[in-house]
Amino acid sequence: MAAVQTTTTNTDPNKGPVDISDNAAQAAANAPVVNSQPNVTNTQVNNGQADPQNATGSGAVSGTGNINTSSLPANDIRFLESIHQGAVDGWKQYGVLPSLTGAQAIIESGWGQSGLTTRGHNLFGIKGSYNGQSITMPTYEYYGGRYVMINDAFRAYPSNYESIVDHGRFLKVNSRYSNLIGQRDYRTVTRLIREDGYATDPRYTNTLNSVIERYNLTAWDQEAFNDTINTGYIDDVSIHGNNLEVAGWHAASNYNQGMHHFIILLDGDTKQELYRQEVAGSYRSDVQRVYPNAAISGWGGFNLTVPNSVNFAGKSIQVVSRYTWNANGEPNCGEDLWFNPVSLNTNAGYLDNFNIDASTNTLNISGWHAADQSAGKDHHFIILYDATKGRELGRYEVNSTIRNDVARVYNAYNAGKSGFSLRVNLSPALIGNQIQVISRYSDTANGEGNRVDYWFAPKTFNANQSYLDKVEISNDHVHVSGWQAADASAKQKNHFVILYDATTHSEIARKRVNSVSRPDVQRVHPDIANASESGFDVTFDFNKVAYAGHQLQVISRYSDATNGEGTRTDAWFTPTTVPNNSDQGYLDSFIIKNGQVTVSGWQAADQSYNERNHFVILYDATTHQEIARKRVNSISRPDVQRAYPNIINAGESGFNVTFDFDKAAYAGHQIQVVSRYSDADNGEGNRTDVWFAPKAVPNNSNRGSLDSFVVKNGQVTVSGWQAADQSYNQKNHFIILYDDTTHREIARQRVTNLDRSDVQRVYPSIYNSAESGFRATFKLNNNLAGHDIQVVSRYSDAPSGEGNHTDLWFDTTKLPEHLF
Asked: What DSSP designation does 750 have?
């Protein structure tokens, strides 16, 4: 790297920021742009997990087993073959039921055809990296109350097998799913995984059960239950201080009481043995629960501390767990379990912060760098590198800080003390080019010699954010205010606001302004160089009549020239139409239904430019009283735009709003809709109204029908419906039996309204039509034989059925001469 410069003073961030050398900055500025970059990575490598690899255990499964594959196309059968072994091993290793794993893989990968599966064998959408491998895919995340598409890293696997087994590990290590580990009934497991929050779809359990049953995936469960057990897991292979720590467990069927348990360490590349030691079993109740039928499981745990870790740093270590009758650890019956090699050459890092602090005008850098090869390299440097020009800007030795969070995730030599933090005074050299952070461990004081680097992804400090708060047009002035926060302002010191006629494509005026304080922008964009001093507020002389109907555009500009030209960074705000003060509107619909009134239409008004609040008001023109008002979001009306292209808000002039409305209370009244633009949040103040023609509210409706009148065994059962607007105030529904021969009431019953969707379809505007049905049964006396009987349906505001009421008297029906 060119222009190497070592700074050895003031590296404690609590003592203040450091500077970039003027010479280094000038050398970078004069250098040509380079086309190549150093080895850049933003991948975080996690080597702390290992999958079991059986040497003498049960044989591999083949094909799809005994599940149902009839009528499946060849591609789907091949997919099932690719996940069969992993699903069975997932039970052996983690206690996850194979039928669950298989069903989830089918559903979530679309039979292996999802983008994540075809690109990275990622069947379940698990994020992060697997053995250092990841792919970047677009995905939606929920930020600030809405879903935003971002690019995120997802684990990339060598084959579907690794994805299936990793899915089992994922469920095992997440405590929320602990209740399904070791469960053997698929219906229990599919219910639990839904309750545990794996999926939000309430039908997820039914979907899983359907797939399991359709393809008889429980055959894989039986296969896993019946197979010989030889499995295990490596919990830890990592360097801690001067020791190598190895921990895990080994459950096996081929074990006899009195056998020796050896842990053997091999060079994962050459297979040369590096170390072996007999271990005493440590009890693992979690393993015992999952493998209760293995000859050894709970007491198959092991913990091994190997001294002198320098002999292992940088190597690929393969762990072999062996049960044998031989005291020297050589094979003699028993069982071997070979785990996948684990690289002790971790080199991982992450930038927690690489941003400009506008309040202090500094570049703040913090993060961590964990590397096994940092052993023996006691000097930790942070290097700033101009990737655009291929030049080093400066290097600073820092004190590594404690990072317990990194140590929990990474089994690297220095993970627990891998943090760094640095503040650098903002320099124009940092603006515009790609700036890269390099973390380096070195065995020399100047940062050269033997070293291990981590190059973080470069970042270009060219942020440019802005907002136009206000454009106020009067007859002779335009007042504009807003803000523009731009990293380029560090180089371009002259701030201009320009008034531009977008209709004639000509500049009207420009003014050089003093940027004003905007602490609100600083809170939202703390990492943009001038956010705290990004505001502008300026007034121009302006002839409104001369520009009526024109598109007026405001430009905020930072420039390195005093006339506003030269090298510059602009923010062009959305044009505003100079108003002609037109006001037009139309009421498209006025619908009263189900206790509500819905109105829609539009109002296009030039004054909406200054009167930003759009209200729709419901007004009783009979009593001259406002009923209700609502503030609305104007909606798109391209038809209005075509008809009135010169009205400022014609394209966004629509409204559609629903009010709660007591039809019975306003029966016969004249209701008027008012559309209003106002400069006040409550709809008063300065305002521009359109009053639409009044609409009459229909009088109260009362409809009904007696569907049946059945006499049997001395009883009469009646059913039918009554739909009445007055049921809104009269909540008690009675059915009355009336003797029309003697003109007296026989009996009455209070009933519960029944659903009548058929009535709703015919009378949608009557208040209770959807729930207007009734059914009642009355006992009859012999003295009523042959009488004319009338049924009355009544809504009343009194529990007795009297008080205010609305009746419907149905036609009389003659009773038979013999009732019993």
From this structure: E
Please give the Cα distance from 731 to 801 (Å, whole number).
10
| Closest alpha carbon to 380 in 395, 402, 390, 393 | 395
Residue 104 in tokens: 């989830």
* DSSP, res 539: E
User: Which phi and psi (to 5°) does residue 668 adopt?
Assistant: 85, -10
Q: Which of these, 536, 529, 376, lies nearest to 463 by C-alpha position?
A: 529
Distance of CA 655 to the CA centre of its chain: 31
Distance (Å, whole) CA 796 – CA 466: 63
In degrees, rounded to 5, the angle at the alpha carbon of residue 622 between the alpha carbons of residues 619 and 624 is 55
Separation of alpha carbons 136 and 237, rounded Å: 28
- The two structure tokens encoding residue 34: 């380079």
| Element (DSSP H or E) covering residue 761 | helix 757-762
Model confidence over 132-180: pLDDT tens digits?
888 988 876 655 566 667 788 899 999 999 999 999 989 988 889 999 9
Using a pLDDT cut of 90, give the percent of the chain over it.
59
Beta-carbon contacts of 630 under 8 Å, excluding residues fewer than 6 positions away, are 615, 616, 657, 659
CA-based nearest residue to 369, from 314, 424, 406: 406
Element (H, E) at 771: none
How many whole angstroms separate alpha carbon 520 and alpha carbon 514? 18
The two beta strands, 379-386 and 391-398, are antiparallel
Q: Which of 34-43, 105-114, 450-459, 532-541 has the lowest mean pLDDT?
A: 34-43
Could you give the CA distance from residue 275 to residue 425 in angstroms, rounded to a whole number?
51
Are 25 and 429 a contacting pair, CB within 8 Å? yes
The pairing of beta strand 316-324 with beta strand 260-267: antiparallel
Q: What's the pLDDT at 28?
A: 62
DSSP code per residue over 95-154: ---HHHHHHHHHHHHTTTTSHHHHHH--SS--BS-BTTBEEEEEEEEEETTEEEEEEEEE
Q: Could you read off the pLDDT of 307-350 as tens digits, one per residue?
A: 866 677 777 888 999 999 999 999 888 888 888 888 788 889 99
CA distances (Å), origin 89, targets 65, 130, 156: 14, 18, 20
Q: Which residues of 591-614 are buried (b: 16+ CB within 10 A; e: fewer)?
A: ebebeebebbbbbbbbbbbbbebb
Mapping DSSP to helix (H, G, I), strand (E, B) and coil, where does residue 812 land? coil
Mutual orientation of helices 98-109 and 74-94 as an angle, nearest 10°?
140
Residues in the chain: 820
- Whether 52 has a pLDDT exceeding 50, the answer reads no
564-577 mean pLDDT: 94
How far lies 360's CA from each of 7, 421, 425, 517, 522, in Å? 21, 16, 9, 14, 11
Residue 662: half-sphere exposure toward Cβ, Cα within 13 Å: 11
Cα separation values, 251 from 231, 322, 686, 809, Å: 5, 11, 81, 83
Candidates 338, 299, 340, 341; CA nearest to 316 is: 341
- CB-CB contact of 323 with 261 (8 Å): yes
Q: Exposure of 269 by Cβ count < 10 A (0-12 exposed, 13-18 middle, 19+ buried)?
A: exposed
Band of pLDDT at residue 47, cut at 50, 70 and 90: very low
Which residues, other chains included, contact 199 with Cβ-Cβ below 8 Å and sequence gap of 6+? 193
The residue ranking higher by pLDDT, 266 or 225, is 266
CA distance 325 to 337: 16
Does residue 722 register a pLDDT over 70?
yes
Three-point CA angle 620, 804, 791, nearest 5°:
120
Mean pLDDT of 670-691: 94
Q: Note the Cα 363 to chain centre separation in Å.
A: 30
